[in-house]
Amino acid sequence: MANTPEVVVGAPEDLGLRQVSVDGRRVGKARSLRELRRILDRAGVPPGHEMQWLGGDGTVWPDQAWVRRTICLFMVLGLAATAWPLFRIGMSDSGDALTYGGRIAGLTILVVALVETLAVVAALDYWTKRRWGYSGVVVLIGVVISLLCSVTLLLLQVGERFTGYTVVGIVLGVWSLVALFGLFKCGAWRGLRIPRKIAIGVVISTLLAAANLAYAQIYVPYVTTPLIQSGAAFKESNMEKGAKEVYLTVHLYVKNAGQVPVYILGSIYWIHGGPANSKSDVRPAGTELLYVGEFVTPVGRVLNPGEEVSQDAVIEVKGTDPHTYEAIRARTEVYVIRKDRMKMSADYERSLVEGKALEEDCQPGDPAGATSRYRTGISNSSEILNVTRGPQRVTVWRVGGKEPHVVVDVSPPGERIPYDGRNPIANEKASERYGLTQVRGAIAQTPYRELLEKAGSTGKGESAAPTPPPTTEPSPAT
Questions:
Q1: Where are the domains of the chain?
Q2: Is the domain 224-476 a CATH 2.60.40.10 member?
Q3: Using CA atoms, how far apart are residues 51 and 39, in angstroms rounded to an integer?
Q4: Cα(212)–Cα(225) distance, integer angstroms
Q5: How far is Cα 332 from Cα 268, in angstroms, rounded to an integer?
Q6: What is the tens place of the pLDDT at every residue in 208-251?
Q7: Among 15, 33, 291, 343, which is least packed, fewest CB within 10 Å?
């Protein structure tokens, strides 16, 4: 009798499992007499052996397989539906995000996706044999992650367009709340053990290091604003003997004097002749537009910190009478967008549409008098922003007429949000998101009589070197 094993079958758990122990040693869990017999056979207990039953005899097996499997499927689908987009976003951002902070966030999302995948495995164990004591806690953590992801996704889409991911966020939110209710009801949190001792010094050091990293690598680069300088300067002037035209050389430039790289979406310069004005930012009445052109090519090029792009444009001014104009004025304007907040496709330069093709492709809301257009799709600095904001594109029009200018638009396809530097509030979204900025260059002004005198003195001799033509010929004003 001393070698007779003591067999105890415990009371049914919430899923119908009954703990089986032999001589105080747990040997398994059973949901039916057949499973109990297999466990006892492995433990070497012969059939017909006397057993001690707790919470009901051998006829009490409350397991409902179809209910348990349905709940398991419900949990696995929800957890997997959370893990898949997290994996996709994490894999993309960890290697392709434009900023250091974006790549760190991508790695973090990738770790969360791994935890969510582990929760899928834990759900299969929790609703089957529960061999792992912490499976319920892991499932609970996975559901909490799903709830946080759904709330974050919905918050990021506040003010955005309704997309498929909005539906995903709503569905995951409802699923998470229902799953949390069920997990608390069945006591999944009971496997959680709170440690008695916490290394406070390690925790504080980690928090300080994380705060310093976030400040130095994420916050500071984000709030740093680009510093773009642009302007024009008159160089030499000359004319041939007896000619009625004066040729002026104008130096045009744009420089990145800040710490943020930018894309140059478009540039334009104007040459006016007319009355002089002491206020450089005000164009006098009665001025005449002599030339208008573009001085930064190719469009869409990157201007890195410390880099400068310049061009010498040669313009022709008809009329050698010193009273024709009091002064000649040159002004530049450049549109830039931050390179660390978006990525522009390489086909922007090749997307030029003009002439008859532009007229045929004209759409409602396009600026009147447009002579050319560049358009391309853009992606945000991280995949999570691509998910929440949806497709975006940038369009740049050149508009002719008496007042030639550039119109820039950053908006979803099918919508128009024209950029107006005189009304920043109207472009607040594009300015905050992508750093879209209109850079008005310093205005150069010089007396026309002085230019004629210099051109005349140069033209008397034959030794003066001719002024090289510009890379891009300026177009005469219409």
A1: 7-53, 65-221, 224-476
A2: yes
A3: 13
A4: 20
A5: 6
A6: 656 665 655 556 666 678 899 999 999 888 877 767 788 889 99
A7: 33
